[in-house]
Design brief:
Blueprint lengths: L1 E6 L4 H14 L9 E6 L14 H9 L3 H17 L15 H12 L3 H13 L8 H10 L4 H8 L5 H13 L7 E4 L3 E4 L4 H14 L7 E2 L8 E2 L4 E2 L4
Parallel strand pairs: 1-2, 4-5
Antiparallel strand pairs: 1-3, 3-4, 6-7
């Protein structure tokens, strides 16, 4: 089974959805290996690097909300993160441009470190308040999981892997991705949003059980999509 995951490193529900997916895989009775591949998606391709704004100020400005409403949004996300063992520190979080982080993630994938880099970048953003738009920070983070510092610097100083990032973002548009996280299983089944773990379990088990008789592309998400973020909104459904 191959699971492709479109996400952005500054998307809180992408990290929550990632962890829920991982927890669901622990419950599956899969006889075949499961390969997870992380795909590039920028929530805000025009974002500039660290502006000095707090995440609450950015959310309030971006979504037309008050600071109190923005703090309420992040409090809800923090609670959902805690439920899957994640520690979100929104008060210190640095909002930034993620294009170079995505390029570096594509490079890491060629070295067999795709999943490790994705986890390291998410944790750096939401728990450690690190700026993944900063090249020095990216060198530090990627080298921690085994990549060579000189190779990392070479990639960041060039335009390498830009085409790969843009291709994956274009692919997301082609298949109708409206927000992230977005999961595609075996190139045929779609799961939208950070669904509850039990929904992932049921959906993925359905793939394992019924794949041969399923149509070419089928949504496995419930009618009410899971929590996700878009360039225009960060949807926090009622629990």
């Amino acid at each position: 089974m191959r699971i492709e995951v479109w996400s952005d490193f500054v998307c809180p529900f992408c990290y929550i959805g990632k962890r829920r997916l991982e927890q669901s895989l622990e419950q599956l009775s899969a006889e075949q290996p499961i390969d997870i591949v992380y795909k590039s998606f920028e929530l805000d391709p025009q974002a500039i690097k660290n502006t000095g704004q707090t995440i609450h100020e950015k959310l309030a400005a971006k979504y037309g909300k008050s600071l109190d409403e923005a703090k309420e949004m992040t409090a809800n996300m923090t609670q959902q993160a805690e439920e899957v063992g994640l520690d979100f520190q929104f008060d210190q979080m640095i909002s930034t441009n993620t294009f170079d982080a995505h390029r570096l993630a594509k490079f890491a994938e060629t070295k067999g470190f795709g999943k490790e880099v994705a986890e390291r970048f998410f944790h750096a953003v939401f728990t450690e308040a690190k700026d993944v738009g900063d090249h020095t920070t990216l060198v530090e983070l990627a080298s921690e999981i085994g990549l060579d510092k000189e190779e990392i610097r070479k990639v960041l100083a060039s335009e390498e892997y830009s085409k790969e990032v843009r291709t994956e973002e274009a692919e997301a548009q082609e298949i109708g991705v409206q927000g992230v996280p977005f999961f595609v299983v075996n190139r045929k089944y779609a799961i939208s949003g950070a669904q509850p773990t039990e929904v992932f379990v049921q959906s993925l088990q359905k793939v394992l059980d019924e794949e041969k008789s399923t149509p070419a592309f089928e949504s496995l998400s419930p009618e009410d999509n899971g929590a996700s973020c878009t360039d225009d909104n960060c949807d926090v459904p009622e629990k």
